[in-house]
Amino acid sequence: MKNVKYCPNCGQAIEKGAAFCQNCGANLNPPEKRVSRTGRKQGKKQKRIIAVVVLTLLAFGGYYLWGSSQYSKDKQVDWIMAALVNPDEDATRYIVADSATLAVNHENLAPLQKFYKEHQTAANRMGQNFKTGDNKYGDFRLVQSGHYAGIFPKYKLQVRTYQPAVVTNHEGSQVTVNGEKIGKLTAKGENVYTKRLGLLFPGKYRLKVTAEVEGRKLSASSTVNINSDDTINLNISTETFTVKSVPNGVVYIDGQNAGSLDDSGELTLKDYPVTKNMSLYVAYQNGDNVVQSSPVTDLGSAFEEASEGYDTSDVYYSDLASDESSETVTTQDDGYLVQPKWTGLVGKSVAESLFDSNYNDPDPDRFVGGSSNSGYQLIKSENNRWDESDKILSYSQTATVSAVYPLSDTESQVIYRIDYTFIHESDVHEQIFEYSGVVEKSGDEYLIQSLGGAKKISDTTTEN
Q: What are the record keywords, sorted (predicted)?
């Protein structure tokens, strides 16, 4: 029964090896189906199409992933901020004005870039603000402007523009902005002449007013950070004042060299044109370091508000420059006295006391690095040697400071002398050495950083 087969058509049992059903005559060996050559070709073509589509989707997906990273919002913010703080970079592709009447070009954007070059911390804060999702920061907005490759959103920095006015006190005054003549100011009242400037991006501008008064040409300039439509006062007045600071330093007024201080640290400027927005600082080059004093801002107002000062002719400049409680601008019989402050500068009297006390009785707490300081170790070793000498009955050391120069915002170069006196049974031996030491400000204290190399000034012996 195992070899019995049945007709697929009628179900009748059929003999083994039969080609046709004996009951219904059905063909028990139907012909095989033949696959057409055309069908095979169409299958291959479909596979190629599918492969191309898959590869295209994969390529597009890869490009989209790359583009999403390359043109991400955070990365575009970084590009914008990098251009904003670099006046040498073309920022026009990243910035738009809130008014279509102001051209976005390198010349117009330069003041904005100059400002943020000096205030990079503010630019960093702005960038972080945009990255957190807030697209507004003060006068700036992060706006979408088109797409990269037609897909990825392109962002630009929209900047608010301003149109301030300039006012002065002399008829026929001419005004220039960053060297470009704007025109004459027109009368608005008695001794009041004004002119509204064109639209400007916020930023750092150099404004200058020139006038002729009784045949004498006067001018006043001011570096102004424009960030509003407020009127800029450029009244021209002249003042005589003396700047007292570090000997041979250079006085800068609104960034321009106004002259050098003499060997005593003074420079007198007579009938100098002054504006309210004017600022002054002193620069001093100490070796490779150029150090600047704290600026005296709004010099015109400082003169108006100055109180009567006392005679400081016998007071060394660093004693006043390091004293935050003393006035920066005071009145004098022949005008004003301007004494800029220096951050971290040590006063002459403070330095003298510091060296004098520590040469006689060294305190590790008064040295940078404490007992590991080489200067402390040298003084301690010499004092111990002299204490143990049988030939020296007694000795003393007296410090005298001759000059103090700024070295950095925390360091001062101190030129001082030590008068060593050694008393023996038969004579008195006196030596004077000069040093160029460094004093460092740490918090509210001044510490000796280094004693400096010794230069012998005199060596005398007097018999008892």
A: Membrane, Transmembrane, Transmembrane helix
